[in-house]
Amino acid sequence: MSFPPRQLYYDGKVQPATSGKTFQTIDPSKATPLADIHVASHSDIDSAIASAERAFKTWSQTPPAARARILQKAASLLRERNDEIARVETLDSGKAYTETSTVDVVTGADTLEYYANLVGSGGLNGETSHLREDAWVYTKKAPLGVCAGIGAWNYPIQIALWKSGPCLAAGNTMIYKPSEFTPLHAQTLAEIFLEAGLPAGAFNVVYGAGDVGAYLTSHPGIAKVSFTGQVSTGLKVAGSAAGNMKYVTMELGGKSPLIILPDAELENAVDGAMMANFYSTGQVCTNGTRVFVPRSMKAAFEKRLLEKIQFVRLGPVFDEATNMGPLSSSVHYEKVTSYIRQGIESDKATLLCGGPDKPQVPKDLQNGYWVKPTVFTDCTDSMKIVREEIFGPVMSILYYDTPEEAVRRANDTEYGLAAGVFTKNINMAHRIIDQLQAGITWVNTWGDSPSEMSVGGWKKSGLGVENGRKGIEAWVTNKSTLVDMSGGVPTVFAKL
Q: For the chain, is the Cβ count within 10 Å smaller at the N or the C terminus?
């Protein structure tokens, strides 16, 4: 094992799990175990929530400026330990170190700092209305209480910070359950928060699979659930939370369209399509996996794409030349490769490159969950590989004749997470974007999601938004008060 066992973390310290159950987290690049992870029992979760309830009494009453200083310190500590944390992320998730060291920790720290600065500068101030000479109304933004954050395995520490940043900035406390496939970051984050000055119990960690998450999210002590994951699980979590009148934020899956207009610069179009399909080994919910290309551009687009595929470099995950790692787990490897076989054998799409066979990698990596960057062309809208989320490095190219046709087909999906367009005509870009049914859209770029940008899905792709000024609204509730200063109370119950 590369790491010592992970127990639970609440009340500001490591706590033993009482379930007697463990699971292993695996290095996807080699399929070797990294650490034993102890599973939380129901009573452990009860104890963690009780710890968070105690901490809430203090943290919720801490002035916003003081909360901001603590969270700013935590962001600074994350940046100081960037490389150390990124190495763990790479081992746990399989993502190339060139990515985790420049994106994962950095963007998470950015979000934490953004919300610290927002609340520290009065971003949670309410509103005041002067109704009449002797009456006025004020509205306060109050924290919700103990919140549950359910993380995902593709961006472990970034997603943990996307949830905990606004949660803690607003004065709430959190029980965080990382994905069972990538749990190693969670205790490190808890320790950094404590070192920065967060009260013991304000950020707590429990481990386990879906049964642990189900108990946590349905617990009467939880006021809000923030979940990132696949649609089927999100529907269950949202249903359970709504049935108990909990606040929810759901960031779910997608099958996002990327529309290349006829006037687009070919080089930019190909680069955009590759970033939208192969970055993070295609394990990004916003990936633009349906690439709509003008029929007139077919030969040129495919030729340049094939020339650039050689720049997708698989190999040792800590090698500076490597820019695509393995898939995250054996289960996910089987899922992605089955979709690739589906595309070849049943959908009868044209395989432009890639395929289900393992790529050539060094001998010590051959047991890992490696897959070739794969491109299907001549795809149709009815194909399974076009309609269902694969969550791997699998691009489907669809050809069209008019922009109106491309927009109509792009919207023909139950998902609505992301969409984008590549064109030199910015006016046309705005017209196309305005018609696309998605909550996150891009023009002449793909995937950039800064802390200032509120993001969330339409249709089955989510509920609510994360990040930006709108993002913190999901972590507070409003309390309105009318103050009457007239000295009397109007009444209809008077003597005639």
A: C
Q: For the segment 269-321, what is each residue's pLDDT rounded down to a tens digit?
A: 999 999 999 999 999 999 999 999 999 999 999 999 999 999 999 999 999 99
The CATH class of 257-443 is: alpha beta
Report pLDDT digits (tens) over 53-62.
Answer: 999 999 999 9
> Is 251 in the active site?
yes
Q: Which of 99, 180, 251, 302 is catalytic?
A: 251
Name the class of domain 8-252+461-481. alpha beta
Domain residue limits, the chain = 8-252+461-481, 257-443
